[in-house]
Every structure is written in structure tokens, then in C-alpha cells.
Write a structure and sequence with these properties.
homodimer; alpha/beta; 9-stranded mixed sheet; two-stranded antiparallel ribbon; 13 strands
Chain lengths: 254, 254
């Protein structure tokens, strides 16, 4: 029997600690191919590169592991892996381990979740792993048993069609277990910091902090992280607001 | 009574025909502020600029219309408009008119819909308008009565919380009316074109074509466009796959 094939990408770059830790954690369960950006692409969402060409560079190859770097976005990496690297579709697409969480509305902004949504659009069971630890040298060893269990289960059972997983880990060395969550819908506040350059011209840095939408609601991923749980949020591709359709028909077309 | 305030952005750039046509169509209903990218940013999704600073440049100001260009992404444009341009929250956020449709799964990739989702995250009724006409000089005059009707209705009635609209127009001069749709979930195929540069190195251009997931299903936006209808797809921020939660609990945590 062939070993499972696991494609991994991220938005922190092919040489980030998180992606290399993840590859090492899942190598017992399959052959791993990493196709990841040349450098950091945080906040890439599902952006694609259409105005410029993209290049691909082989970094290394050893039994059970190939690593490629791509000049494009995280989503480009998945697309080009399917087109030009993999000789058969993978059994699993993984994003991460992201240095920084992607819970709540950050699924919309996250390049790591861009990887995962792209894998899901290609009909492959896909999972994003992110940690609240932002440090480039973060110790992710506490994540190992959870990641290994989730990967083994998904390799065995698959995922429902058009559904992928957004798995986020709190900042601590021991977790209170896993919780199945819904995404918190909150707000980013104070999003820009204004500065003046040496020539007197204004410029802006994106920054800010996230305020939970439902801080006391224990069904959200944000609550789970704040209370020491591993937050598993199932995410669906279909964004249609079905429950709004009838009302909108009357309001817009009546 | 104050006139409504309408914020418009896009992913084709502040000087694209589509955004200027849209501004002109909606000026009868409010004061318009355009904050749009300096140039084309197609396929930007909800990407944000975090690794570099962003700059903002006033292009013009006249009664009822201000235009700014921003070096960042479409999503950055909305964020910086709220932070540094608008003196009060807008009554409406519009994306478009995009030169090229954003129906079906393209809501995930679209910078125009990135604008709209960002407006929705900021609790403002938000609508994306896109046309299947890709030509930079496309004639969008057939869209005018539809856009004006939709904008007037949404200014009057608002939209449900956490729901925005993705409105797509077919390539033709007369439409068969509007249809409330769900998003088609299909596939992008042949996504890369390989070339070799003068130095013998390989590079890739993103390309491809979209294959409808449910081509004969008249409930999808793709079907509506293919049959001459204006496709209105309500889109929700919450991507939680609620219906998958129980099964996944058993499969992952049992």
C-alpha cells in the first residue's frame, strides 16, 4: 500500500520553524511535500498572483520529504504544487503551524487558512494549525499529540465535502483538551499607526487588536483559546447566506 | 437631513472605468468617497499589507466626491478609509464595478469582495458589483438601473447583520431580471502556463478556466449569469460549518 501523501504550506515561509515542526510531526503518517512561500506572507488570505509570473525552487529532497519555495502567495503554493510538483493528488493538505492564531474572523485574512481553503476547493481534506505563540522560535512541542491525533483521524475518516478545519492552540504548555467551536465574529480596533518619514510624508503601519464579538459565549473559538482549550473550528466553502435569501428577495426585488 | 455617505473601493485601481462609472451611478443617492488601490490588485482576496507601510494620496475633491489612492490592497483601502479619511462611518460600502465576474467560488479570491467583506466586518451594509465584461473600456450602462435600484433599496432597508451582497452581471446589454442565488462551488482547471525565460529558467503564469460545479442547477449564481440574469448572491461572514460539528466531534474527539 502506498504511504499517504501530505502537502504542507504556510504563510510564514518555507524556512519558518512552524512549518518544519509540522512536517516533522506528521512524517510518521505519510510522505511530506512542502511547497511554501520564499518568505513571510502574513495576512495573504486567498490572494493569488496574477499580474506577475511565479517561480518555484527546489530546496531539498530526502526520502519521505521534499521542500520547495515559491515566489507567490500561500494560495499560489497550493495551486502550483498540484500543477507542477505532485504526481498524484495528496491525501491531506496542511497549513501551518502558523506563528500567531487564526481564530475568529481571522480565517478571512489568514494566508494559512488560504492554503487550507484552496486544498478544500481541490476536494482534499485540509487542516490549518495555528498557535497563539507569535515568537519565531516558539516551542510547539505541546501541540504534537493533538496534531498527530487529528492528522491520523482525518487520514482515516476524511472530512465532509466542502468542509475544512481551522485548529488553533492557546499560549501555554498544557491544554485543557479539544473543543469543537464556531468562529467568533468580533472587531479589529485601532488598525493603523501613523508615522512621518524623514521627508515629512505620512505613512501607515497596519496594527491593532482584536476584540471578541461574544466574549462570554463558550461556543466560540476565541473563548476556547482564552480558556486553555485547543479550538477546532470547522469551516465551509459555501458562504451563501441561505437564511437571508427570502427576506432579501422581498426587499430588493419586490 | 445629512446625505448618505457611500464609500467605494475596488481591486482594479482608483482610475479604472468600473469604479468611476459606479461612483457616477450612485452620486444621486449620497456623497461618495473613493479610496482605491493605486493600480490593479486582481485576486487580492482579503489580503492585508502588514510587512510594509501603506501610503494614501488625495487624487481629487469636489462637492459630493472625494477620491484617494492607496498603495495597499483593496482590504487595506477600506480599513484606512475608516481610520484616516471618513469623519463618520459610511452608510454603505461598495466594491466595483469589477471588470470580470466574481461569482461562484471567486468570492474567495476576489479583491472586490474583499472590500465588501471588510465593510461587512465593520457592520456597514456592503455590496460588490462585478460584470462578466473584462474589457478595461467596457460599457457598463446596462447595469445602471439595477445598481441604482439595489443601492436605493439597501440605503432604505439595510442588510441583515453579517450578510453582504455579491452582485454579478452577464455579458450582454439587456438582462432577464434579477435572481437571488447561492454560490456555485466548481473548479478552476489548467491553472498555470509554464514558460522559459531567456536565461533558460522556468516561470509560471496564473491562468485557467472555471468549470461550474452544478451547471444545470438553476439556483446558482453561475447558472443565472449563463442564462442572462443579474445574479445576487447573499454572502455571510460566518464560515462555521455548523452542520458538520456533531459528526466531527465523534470522528476527531471520540
Amino acid at each position: 500500500m502506498n504511504r499517504p501523501l501530505i502537502l504542507i504550506s504556510n504563510d510564514d515561509g518555507y524556512d519558518a520553524k512552524g512549518i518544519n515542526d509540522l512536517a516533522e510531526m506528521v512524517r510518521p503518517y505519510g510522505d511530506v511535500v512542502i511547497v511554501a512561500p520564499e518568505g513571510g506572507r502574513s495576512g495573504s488570505a486567498m490572494a493569488m498572483t496574477s499580474a506577475e509570473p511565479v517561480r518555484l525552487r527546489k530546496i531539498k529532497e530526502e526520502p519521505g520529504l521534499q521542500v520547495y519555495a515559491c515566489t507567490g502567495t500561500p494560495c499560489d503554493c497550493v495551486k502550483i504544487a498540484f500543477h507542477s510538483v505532485l504526481t498524484s493528488p495528496p491525501d491531506l493538505v496542511l497549513g501551518g503551524i502558523n506563528h500567531g492564531d487564526n481564530a475568529a474572523i481571522n480565517v478571512h485574512y489568514s494566508g494559512t487558512m488560504g492554503v487550507v481553503l484552496e486544498g478544500c476547493l481541490k476536494h482534499i481534506p485540509s487542516i490549518g494549525f495555528s498557535s497563539c505563540k507569535r515568537d519565531p522560535n516558539a516551542d510547539f512541542s505541546a501541540l504534537r499529540p493533538y496534531i498527530q491525533k487529528i492528522v491520523q483521524r482525518v487520514l482515516a475518516d476524511g472530512l465532509p465535502p466542502q468542509v475544512c478545519l481551522n485548529v488553533n492552540f492557546p499560549v501555554r504548555e498544557e491544554f485543557n483538551g479539544m473543543r469543537m467551536c464556531r468562529m467568533d465574529v468580533g472587531n479589529w480596533l485601532k488598525e493603523w499607526e501613523e508615522r512621518t518619514d524623514p521627508r515629512g510624508r505620512q505613512y501607515f503601519w497596519l496594527t491593532g487588536y482584536y476584540e471578541a464579538g461574544q466574549p462570554d459565549d463558550d461556543s466560540t473559538d476565541r473563548w476556547a483559546l482564552d480558556h486553555g482549550y485547543v479550538a477546532i473550528t470547522p469551516v465551509q466553502l459555501d458562504m451563501t447566506a441561505y437564511s437571508a435569501m427570502e427576506g432579501l428577495k422581498t426587499s430588493l426585488m419586490g
